[in-house]
Specification:
Elements (H helix, E strand, L loop, with lengths): L15 E7 L3 H12 L6 E8 L5 H8 L4 E5 L4 H15 L4 E5 L3 E3 L3 H7 L5 E10 L6 E3 L3 E2 L6 E2 L15 E2 L7 E5 H7 L11 H11 L3 E12 L11 H18 L5 H21 L3 H16 L3
Parallel strand pairs: 1-2, 1-4, 2-3, 6-12
Antiparallel strand pairs: 4-11, 5-12, 6-7, 8-9, 10-12
Helix pairs in contact: 7-9, 8-9
């Protein structure tokens, strides 16, 4: 695939850096890059942050997508540190917006253009509607609303059919880190991801900080992304996914729970832990069950 140079006649368009983190999933990353290469947006740069892959990712990406910049880490830094590495590079390169996307997702051609059109000074984060790759018309995430007592999130459109009925911008408390567009001012004001979240909940943490800064979080349903859910952790209910989900959840609630919320959160999290344990047990996921409880333990023991 040949390079797609920036259209020099459209230099008034803000520079958008697309940041992708890859770790040993070069086929997924190449699909992601191919979709971004078809973007209708005219002032775009692409950066792949490789987290110490050993599958020949960097060479294959250089061969097939020579226009994509790469940063090569010597080890797997996780989601937060990996994306922070890329976002710092984009900020140093005078990006005006940064669009992060999971490498196991693909983007509709007009997505970035649509998000940019909806950007205002009061928007801290803009995000697309995200559907399942396996079921392209089923919604995986439209962002979420969070409970003022439990801090749990709820997505009112989760697994509903995307029939194109939602054209108006959706105001949200939270959007998933699978795909986010940041104006640079957001990141300079509230900072990057908390790198103590190796994987999971770093997006909820960042969204909470955005809201505390008085900025909005909006989903634009006409902008589309399709996601192969949980590829980066090995898949739903694998030991790795369960461990990091549990550990990061404990860190999140310990970090953000206010005194009046603590009793409710503890009660709610105990119920959640019992439900998760029961589900894993009845589905013969003994390794994932042990990993889940190890994650809860390590989350309780680590420093905030």
């Amino acid at each position: 695939m040949r390079n797609k140079p920036v259209n020099q006649s459209q230099q008034s368009s803000p520079l958008v850096y697309v940041v992708i983190v890859n770790w040993n999933r070069v086929d997924d990353t190449r699909e992601c890059l191919a979709s971004i290469s078809n973007s209708t947006y005219d002032n775009l740069k692409i950066l792949v942050v490789d987290n110490g892959s050993t599958d020949g990712s960097t060479e294959l990406i250089s061969r097939d997508f020579p226009f994509a910049e790469q940063i090569h880490n010597t080890e797997n830094l996780g989601f937060a540190r990996g994306y922070n590495t890329g976002m710092k590079h984009a900020m140093d390169s005078e990006a005006e917006y940064i669009f992060i996307i999971n490498n196991d997702a693909t983007v509709a051609p007009g997505t970035i253009s649509i998000l940019i059109k909806h950007s205002t000074p009061k928007n801290g984060i803009l995000a697309p509607l995200i559907n399942y790759s396996e079921y392209p018309n089923m919604i995986w995430s439209s962002g979420g609303l969070t409970s003022s007592w439990t801090l749990e999130k709820h997505d009112p459109l989760y697994e509903k059919i995307d029939s194109g009925d939602w054209e108006q911008v959706l105001k949200r408390d939270f959007v998933t880190g699978c795909a986010m567009l940041f104006p640079i001012n957001t990141l300079t004001q509230i900072g990057l991801f908390d790198e103590k979240f190796h994987m999971y909940y770093e997006d909820m943490d960042l969204c909470l900080r955005v809201r505390e800064a008085g900025l909005g979080i909006n989903v634009v349903p006409t902008a589309k992304v399709w996601h192969k859910v949980a590829r980066s952790s090995g898949g739903p209910d694998t030991p790795n996914e369960r461990y990091w989900m549990a550990r990061s959840s404990v860190r999140f609630f310990r970090k953000h729970a206010k005194p009046h919320q603590i009793p409710v959160i503890i009660f709610w999290r105990i119920l959640s832990g019992l439900r998760t344990s029961f589900r894993l047990a009845v589905n013969n996921r003994s390794n994932a069950l042990r990993a889940y409880w190890a994650g809860l333990r390590d989350g309780l023991l680590e420093k905030i």
